[in-house]
């Protein structure tokens, strides 16, 4: 990737051809229903849409597709939608990209929204690019932030690049609708107002012969992931002598499992017989550079620290505030790892 | 069965340092690699090829002349053929333009039964090429796939779906985007590396070869600037273990260091 051309692009004149943007109005959210509820990611998108719509003085519309989803329409209104278009049919019980694209593309063609937001969920990530291609428009995916360029009424989407180390901002001046997917967890969930009024409209389904080509065979499948070589592990969880005994070490093991992390340790952990020799991190062992290193119950002696100094973020859990690792950690958790780790597992929903 | 694998060449992240505090990117070593997502797609294709007698794997890549190296690496890994899509008119391609070019190349190759790409590319991470290509070609699609088998004109996949996984069967022709963590790539064979440069030919296709009008290649997205996440300031957490644990998990999630509930894949 050559970064120099970005500068040049910025300099370029930006002109908008009116015929491209004319007649497009209002802000849309393609809402999702999951297990009979509206997931937080959809509420976040509604909240963000409401904020932008208020700034430019337009309505928020939401589309809701699925089987038995109509009762949720009123909730979308409570969270900020002005009008909800519901396609409720047993034929939509299962997600089919072509069918969903057909319905949404038809609705967009009829109502011409200016902007279309979707949550960056499994479904949104699958559907949004295909819909954008059908509509011949641009899509800014995985946005962490949305702003407006009021002078041109442009949606500016900021999304991560280089694994989240850098953010890039894009706009789509020449095509409508301006589409963006919103990364879950980055936008505020608005508070619901059960007295908010709005309109619910049922959509007459005309699939025009389009059928899905997927068969959903099993919902609760599992996969076994191959082990990641230590040198490439993004998350590494590490144990030290401070974990006390095999039971304490097992907590660290469990944390690594839940986070999909590689498991390593200090020389101390090796001496205790918890980890094999090739899993010692430090000058006398492995040098690693993960994005995240969680050091549990280890002192972080300089011999050890040398092996992880390139980690992007070090989290240390240690009751001793003055342990060397606590001085270099980005997040220093002062506490007993035998209590903190179970609470972390709990917070992770395990 | 014909498989086409669009691969992307990216700057090796190991040669880049991002200094959030200085708001600058330092390129210490300008080396290029095959994007990990594309490499996983190659691996997935080569595994399918090994399982059957009649299978063909073709790597294609849109990029400047140096992308030739990535395609030769794909050949060394075991691909049967490789094509470079390169033309001065392609230089400003965004995702929608890249889709047009890649789709034109697939058509010129006579179509495919299966197109395999990465879930997201390693640098810009848009995750759009797969579904866009499926739409451009009218193929079916399954994204974020962790396991893949092909039988009787259909692919059986295990895909990420929300917080879990689902088994989904898809009719061919289809585009499948793969999760890099599920398909660790093989190393190219020594002898094949030599051959990749000595014996194989990597044809270059430009606008004329693909029947594309340069004027039809106008990007839709414009770049509006670069910014940096705030640097990680050292932080201390103390107090009740339950509260502290919750705070740490929240901080890690916001910094995108962990992915509870599948993060971008979760509902
Ligand atoms: C030449 C040389 C090379 C070396 N190379 C390496 C190397 O490559 N790698 C390496 O790791 N070591 C290496 N060492 C050893 C190193 O000096 C340390 O002795 C070792 O790292 C200490 O291991 P530790 O942190 O697990 O144990 P300790 O130093 O005993 O630390 C235990 C820590 O756990 C904390 N603790 C206690 N209870 C709890 C609790 N309930 N919850 C949380 N925390 C708790 C304590 O406060 C303490 O900070 C080397 C030494 C030498 C001399
Ligand atoms: N320029 C390109 N040439 C060929 N394939 C590409 C190109 N860009 C992206 N791809 C493929 O599409 C996948 C997803 O890329 P993206 O949509 O950019 O995140 C990558 O992993 C590649 O397999």
Describe the structure.
The complex is a heterodimer of chains A (350) and B (267). By secondary structure, chain A is an alpha/beta fold. Chain A has 11 helices and 16 strands. In chain A, strands 5-9-4-1-2-3-10 form a 7-stranded parallel β-sheet, with helices on both faces. Chain A has a 5-stranded parallel β-sheet with strand order 13-12-14-15-16. In chain A, helix 5 crosses helix 6 (122-135) and helix 7 packs parallel to helix 11 (337-347). Chain A is elongated. Chain A starts with a helix and ends with a helix. Chain B has 267 residues and is an alpha/beta fold. Chain B has 2 domains: 2-217, HUPs (Rossmann fold); 234-267, no CATH class. Chain B is 28% helix and 30% strand. A 9-stranded mixed β-sheet of chain B has the order 11-10-9-12-8-1-6-7-13, with helices on both faces. In chain B, strands 2-5 form a two-stranded antiparallel sheet. In chain B, strands 3-4 form a two-stranded antiparallel ribbon. In chain B, strand 9 (140-151) and strand 10 form a beta hairpin. Chain B is globular. The interface between A and B is large, with 98 and 92 residues.
Short description:
The complex is a heterodimer of chains A (350) and B (267). Chain A is of the alpha/beta class and 350 residues long.
Topology:
The complex is a heterodimer of chains A (about 350) and B (about 270).
Chain A: H1 4-11, H2 18-21, E1 27-31, H3 40-56, E2 60-66, H4 73-79, E3 83-88, H5 97-111, E4 115-119, H6 122-135, E5 139-143, E6 145-149, E7 154-161, E8 166-171, E9 178-182, E10 199-202, E11 214-221, E12 235-239, H7 246-259, E13 262-265, H8 267-271, E14 292-296, H9 302-305, E15 313-318, H10 324-328, E16 331-334, H11 337-347
Parallel strand pairs in A: 1-2, 1-4, 2-3, 3-10, 4-9, 5-9, 12-13, 12-14, 14-15, 15-16
Antiparallel strand pairs in A: 6-7, 7-8
Helix pairs in contact in A: 5-6, 7-11
Chain B: E1 2-6, E2 9-11, E3 16-19, E4 24-27, E5 32-34, H1 36-50, E6 56-62, H2 68-77, E7 81-85, H3 95-108, E8 114-118, H4 129-137, E9 140-151, E10 154-161, E11 164-171, E12 174-178, H5 190-198, E13 204-205, H6 207-210, E14 222-227, E15 235-238, H7 241-254
Parallel strand pairs in B: 1-6, 1-8, 6-7, 7-13, 8-12, 9-12
Antiparallel strand pairs in B: 2-5, 3-4, 9-10, 10-11
Helix pairs in contact in B: 2-5, 3-4
The complex binds flavin-adenine dinucleotide and adenosine monophosphate (AMP).
């Amino acid at each position: 990737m050559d970064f120099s051309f970005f500068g040049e692009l910025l300099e370029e004149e930006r002109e908008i051809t009116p015929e491209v943007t004319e007649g497009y109005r209002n802000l849309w959210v393609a809402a999702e229903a999951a297990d009979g509820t509206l997931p937080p990611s959809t509420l976040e998108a509604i909240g963000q849409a409401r904020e932008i719509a208020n700034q430019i003085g337009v309505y928020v519309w939401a589309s809701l597709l699925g089987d038995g989803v109509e009762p949720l329409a009123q909730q979308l209104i409570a969270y900020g939608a002005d009008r909800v278009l519901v396609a409720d049919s047993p034929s939509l019980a299962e997600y089919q990209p072509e069918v969903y694209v057909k319905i949404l593309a038809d609705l967009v063609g009829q109502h011409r929204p200016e902007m279309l937001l979707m949550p960056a969920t499994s479904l949104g990530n699958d559907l949004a690019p295909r819909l954008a291609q059908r509509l011949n428009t641009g899509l800014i995916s995985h946005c962490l932030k949305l702003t407006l360029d009021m002078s041109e009424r442009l949606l500016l989407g900021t999304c991560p690049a280089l694994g989240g180390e850098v953010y890039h901002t894009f706009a789509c001046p020449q095509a409508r609708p301006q589409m963006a997917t919103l990364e879950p967890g980055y936008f505020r969930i608005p508070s619901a107002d059960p007295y908010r009024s709005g309109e619910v409209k049922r959509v007459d389904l005309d699939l025009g012969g389009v059928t899905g080509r997927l068969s959903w065979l099993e919902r609760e499948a599992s996969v076994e992931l191959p082990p990641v070589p230590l040198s490439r592990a993004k998350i590494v969880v590490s144990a030290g002598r401070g974990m006390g005994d095999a039971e304490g070490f097992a907590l660290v093991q469990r944390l690594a499992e839940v986070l999909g992390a590689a498991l390593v340790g200090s020389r101390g952990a090796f001496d205790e017989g918890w980890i094999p020799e090739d899993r010692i991190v430090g000058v006398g062992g492995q040098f690693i550079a993960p994005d995240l290193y969680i050091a549990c119950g280890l002192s972080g002696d300089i011999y050890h620290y040398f092996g992880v100094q390139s980690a992007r973020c070090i989290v240390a859990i240690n009751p001793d505030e003055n342990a060397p690792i606590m001085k270099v950690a980005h997040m220093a958790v002062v506490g007993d790892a035998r209590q903190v780790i179970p609470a972390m597992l709990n917070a992770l929903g395990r | 069965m014909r498989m086409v694998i669009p691969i992307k060449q990216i700057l090796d992240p190991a040669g880049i340092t991002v200094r959030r505090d200085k708001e600058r990117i330092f390129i210490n070593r300008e080396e290029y690699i095959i994007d990990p997502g594309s490499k996983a797609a190659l691996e997935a294709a080569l595994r399918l090829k090994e399982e059957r007698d009649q299978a063909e794997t073709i790597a294609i890549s849109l990029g400047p002349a140096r992308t030739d190296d990535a395609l030769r690496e794909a050949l060394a890994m075991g691909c049967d053929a490789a094509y470079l899509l390169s033309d001065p008119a392609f230089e400003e391609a965004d995702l929608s333009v890249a889709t047009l070019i890649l789709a034109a190349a697939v058509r010129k190759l006579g179509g495919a039964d299966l197109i395999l790409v990465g879930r997201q590319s390693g640098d810009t991470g848009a995750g759009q090429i797969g579904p866009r290509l499926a739409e451009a070609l009218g193929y079916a699609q399954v994204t974020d796939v962790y396991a893949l088998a092909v039988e009787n004109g259909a692919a059986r996949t295990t895909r990420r779906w929300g917080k879990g996984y689902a088994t989904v069967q898809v009719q061919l022709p289809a585009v499948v985007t793969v999760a890099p963590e599920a398909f660790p790539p093989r190393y190219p064979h020594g002898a094949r590396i030599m051959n990749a440069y000595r014996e194989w030919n990597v044809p270059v296709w430009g606008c004329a070869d693909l029947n594309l009008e340069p004027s039809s290649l106008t990007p839709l997205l414009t770049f509006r600037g670069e910014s940096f996440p705030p640097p990680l300031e050292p932080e201390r957490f103390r107090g009740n273990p339950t509260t502290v644990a919750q705070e740490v998990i929240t901080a890690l999630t916001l910094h995108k260091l962990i992915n509870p509930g599948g993060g971008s894949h979760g509902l």
